[in-house]
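Sample pair:
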Amino acid sequence: MKLRHHVIITTSITLLLFILALVVALFGMQTTKNRFQQFIEVDQALLNEETTMYAQGLQMGQALRNIVMEPSDQVAYRNLDNAAQIFENALEQARQIAHADPKSLQRLAAIASIRQRHIEEQERVKSILQNQPAAIRAVRENETPVWREMRALLIESINEHRENVAVMGQEMQALSQTILSLSLLLGVIGLIVSAGLMTWLAQHILRLIGGDPAEALQVTSAIAKGDFTQTITLRPGDQNSLLAAMNTMQNNLIDMASRMQQTAESIDTAAHEISLGNVDLSARTESQAAGLEETAAAMEELTSTVRLNADNAHEANRLAAQAADKATQGGQAVAQA
């Protein structure tokens, strides 16, 4: 596998671990956000509305008592009406908030039913205000017990939702702590794995190079300049690293340079011998040329002599022919005589 692939794999594993830690952290934050949003929009909101109903119930009871004590107290009437209206609004708002909670809806329905009886008792008290003792007795014996019944449900619901809020807070805190711990754990694991991978990658690179990269660069530069005297220190058993290959290359270059020097010396000796042979050959050639010149001169002289002899022979033949003709003519003359 190439070094580039090792680097890519190492970097990818490190990034994946940190991305995983980030995803866990973001998931935890989103989960906590959703739980907190539910806590604010449902549990805490429902608790606030029930607390409002409880407070307005107390306000209605106090206003009704003020009306019984002073039937002409218009402020008490307004306080009673305002408290009743706020109570109804809070009850309706609580129903909307608890639309997905059957238990809360059932309790709110019971509160609404009791509230109708409570309104009837309040109206009965207001109808007998002229008889204050009877009105006081109606408040004590009829209106107050109905309120206490409704108050018991409100207190039960408020306490339950307070417990839910406390439990929710603890759960959110525990969830946040768990997510934080998990994110930190993944981060630490990522750091450890990254450190291990980086260490492994560094050792792998050093094994490939065979030593420090600066040393390899120095040796390479020296060999490139023709300096084959570098001392290359190799690790025990190192035969496949870059420095081992460079050490082998340097030794081969030294051996090749030595053989080339020996060859050059042999060529120089042979050239010197060839030069001496050329000088001797030149002298012999000159001697042979002189002999050839003498031979050529003798040949020319011989040729002249031969040519002269030929001419003389030709002349002798001519003279002999003439003598023969004359002899023939003399013989014919003798015969005729």
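The chain has a mean pLDDT of 82.
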